[in-house]
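#structure-requests
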Amino acid sequence: MKYSRQRELILETLRHMKSHPTAEQLYAHVKERLPSVSLGTVYRNLNLLAELGIIRKVESAGTTSIRYDGRNDEHCHLVCSTCGSITDVDLGMFSAIDESLHAQTGFTVAEHGIILKGTCATCALTRRTDA
């Protein structure tokens, strides 16, 4: 992949964000540091980075918006079906699962994509106080 200052800034910005932003949200942050960047450039670079496995695309419940995750290590996503928030969780179980699967079937796992859907603590608390 050819070096691109814009791509580097997009990736750096995404990796420093605590949330899982949409392309539009990320664009707003990148534009603060690089006013000449276009939304199309952000979309193209996000798609390329995801295609290369450098970042991940995450779909949120109840929306057609794709969110992006700058973390490329093994972790799960908790997706709230009420508010659409996405939270990263490190379960530390992937290597044991990979080894067990390989021993049983000879299959070698290349990547994981576990998404757990439910209700986040904030929405659960809101429901209790509204009742």
